[in-house]
Amino acid sequence: MTNGLREVAIVGVGQTDHGALHAVRDAERDDHALAARALAAAVEDAGLDKNEIEGLICARVGYHRMADITGLHSARAVFDLEGSGRMSGVAVNQAVALIRSGVVDTVALVYGNNGRSVKMKYGGEGGGPTVSYDEMYGMTSPGAYVAMMYQRYAQLYGAPEDALAPIAINNRRHAELNPIAVMRKQISRDDYLASRMIAEPLRLYDYCIINDGGVALILTTMERAKDLRHRPVRVAATAATANLTNFYTSTDLFGAACADVADRVYTESGFQPSDMNCLQIYDNFTPTVLFTLEGFGHAERGTAWQWVRDKGIGLDGGRPINTAGGHTAESYMQGWAHHVEAVVQLRGDAGPRQVEDCRVAQYMCASPIVTSHVLVGEDN
User: Fold this and answer.
1) What is the DSSP letter of 156?
2) What is the phi/psi pair of residue 9, to 5°?
3) Do 101 and 55 meet the contact criterion of CB atoms below 8 Å apart?
4) Does the pLDDT of residue 82 top 70, yes or no?
5) Strands of 8-15's sheet, edge to edge?
6) Residue 129 has pLDDT above 70, yes or no
7) Beta bridge partner(s), residue 238
8) Of 89, 190, 308, 378, whose CA is between 20 and 30 Å from 58?
9) What percent of the chain has pLDDT over 70?
């Protein structure tokens, strides 16, 4: 018990083979079927009976159809979340709250995405009342907004043209060791600089992938977790703070919201940035990694571009980042696969990309809803 609340663990994870799905586009590929496949894998991974699942939280897929496909017709807590990347952290945050408070004992989180096969584009779909004013200036997607924020960052802090290259290169190095990653071919600094601009100053390798896949997580009480198949991964802390406007731009690079979440997760968990053995950072675009590192106290303001260059963000570095390949190399499962990777690392099951003595991991998402969790690998 923590402050009278039950402790929570992630006990099951499942995901599809993102690389295999990316290799063959299928216009009839179904996002709900991908999500169901991931959930079946997570149930098997946990070693529990599917009928123990009392809560169902879905993102990008609808709970009505997921209940029919999976047979989870009688869940006691049910939610649908929008298909944005910030929702993976929100889903974990909600599941922890449900379990801690005793509303349910076990929750399944389910995500499915057939974006590549249906030729999904992120941006340009319309939106709120200011969209027409944004579009006339070329602001048609989150990438354009992040490019604007990074332009400001680079001017303020003197980041050179290749400042983002170490992040893109690092993701590819990790993806090479991940058999289900989409982009496993390594790139060099010269490759990065030679790639075309998408929204200046962001290049091709600064952008996430559009791909198909499914991911599922199962959370339950620590008490129940001790009897299940794998080493429990305890949620030592989780928090969220919004930074909401009608556009995807934050003048402080989500700094204040990140600082608020950081203070709460570090206080609740008892861990500090220097205690983290690996970081799983939501990286829809590479500048987000810089904003996150600074916002959560891993690097001083204006220095993260040097931090990723000098501190060692690879598997043998001081603080490995996105050890499965991140959103620019493994897949763009909108933050969900980052959670899977954190669990796999803390279990010690990551194979050739395993971080040595990985005991504490942090998930962070700097976005209009900032979220973070501190996760700890526990002995059975």
Assistant:
1) H
2) -135, 150
3) no
4) yes
5) 77-81, 55-59, 106-114, 212-221, 8-15, 233-242, 369-377, 360-365, 278-281
6) no
7) 373
8) 378
9) 97
